[in-house]
Specification:
168 residues, alpha/beta, 6 helices, 5 strands, binds 5-O-phosphono-beta-D-ribofuranose
């Protein structure tokens, strides 16, 4: 029996309704071979559990946190307030303002508690995983190689399909 590797990335989201978007984060990390944990926690509905999860992340072996939320989107800031691990915020598209509300909320953290914010929705969810990988790759050669391979594969897809009139 092989031991399950300890998660290196913690993904948290404000609601189960965020999962269809955040699955892009999970899939991208899986593709890069990076173990992660994912769970739902709410800055407003479960503030104590949210604080506890963030405060204990480092001792659980996690090195980067990814926090997704929509609307007022307080979650990444609430997480960042409880840890000095890097926190990446992913704005969810939401129900009224197409995610612009969440984007501005996350990106406008006051000085002192940073949240590195990516773009709205699935593109941001994918890039959050890649950015987390880049942070890990500073001190992890296997992750650096996985990132190189990811980019090489995407470059090859372009080079293999140079004719724009044959779009899939
Ligand atoms: C936020 O409110 C969540 O992150 C989600 O994006 C949004 C809606 O949540 P639900 O009403 O679907 O639970 O807290």
């Amino acid at each position: 029996m092989t031991a399950t590797p300890l998660p290196r990335v913690g993904i948290v989201m404000g609601s189960q309704s965020d999962w269809p978007t955040m699955q892009a984060t999970a899939d991208t990390l899986t593709g890069l071979g990076i173990p992660f944990e994912a769970r739902v926690l709410s800055a407003h509905r479960t503030p104590d559990e949210t604080a506890q999860w963030a405060a204990t992340a480092r001792e659980r072996g996690i090195r980067v946190l990814i926090a997704a939320a929509g609307g007022a989107a307080a979650l990444p800031g609430a997480i960042a307030a409880k840890t000095t691990l890097p926190v990446i915020g992913v704005p969810m598209e939401g129900w009224a303002l197409k995610g612009l509300d969440a984007l501005l909320s996350m990106v406008q953290m006051p000085p002192g508690i940073p949240v590195g914010t990516v773009s709205i929705g699935k593109p941001g969810a994918t890039n959050a995983a890649l950015y987390a990988a880049a942070i890990l790759a500073v001190s992890d050669e296997a992750v650096a190689q996985a990132l190189d391979a990811y980019r090489a594969k995407r470059a090859q897809q372009i080079l293999d399909n140079p004719d724009p009139s044959k779009a899939g």
